[in-house]
Amino acid sequence: xxxxxxxxxALLYTLFFIPLxxxxxxxxxxxxxxxxxxxxxxxxxxxxxxxxDDGNVLAQRLAYGHALSEYLTIEAYIVGERDDxxxxxxxxxxxxxxWMLTEQGxxxxxxxxxxxxxxxxxxxxxxxxxGILFEKEFTQxxxxxxxxxxxxxxKDIEDEFETEFRLKYRYRYLAALQPSIEIxxxxxxxxxxxxxxxxxRYTGQxxxxxxxxxxxxxxxxxxxxxxxxxxxxxx
Length: 235
What we know:
- The chain is mainly β and about 240 residues long.
- It has 1 helix and 12 strands; from the N terminus they run αββββββββββββ.
- The chain has one domain: Beta Barrel (Porin), CATH 2.40.160.
- The chain is globular and about 45 Å long.
């Protein structure tokens, strides 16, 4: 009953804000799993490079996370980007919370919620993201879906709601090598491409995860593709 209450509350919270527009820019990023491990701590590095007709956008994220309970984890990020002159510097700060709404295997699918607050470093721009995380296993494959709602506000931006959608269909071939197909949508953007991930386990809860994906845009531009890579050490 508690799990059902958590799930229904998060669903109502997200669905209350029916999408008003598609998200700005490109939402190619991590596809979040709903799971939280008690006492988990993690260090994470993400790298994203998007190349299109307007040039190249390069971004990196460094993060530290800690599980506050068996259902809730919090993670803090610093975000760096390369500007128009080619210099790489601090772009934003983020604080992120994931909430596991159901026990793994408790229902026909596993559910979670994501809440994230971002502040631009040199501009009065804030961004709050909330969404539902879904994962379902089919024999040796897993389907993970993120449905996210984004609200932007501040003196340097027009207030608006946006939405993002991310999907990963993964084949658990080996722990160290799991190929997948990933799909992303956003404003004037639909992207799809292959991905790969793997896990190397050490003693106890210690493990190293890696992810790599190449996403091609299908929105009509002559050139629009994104490379994303991530390393995550859990201990």
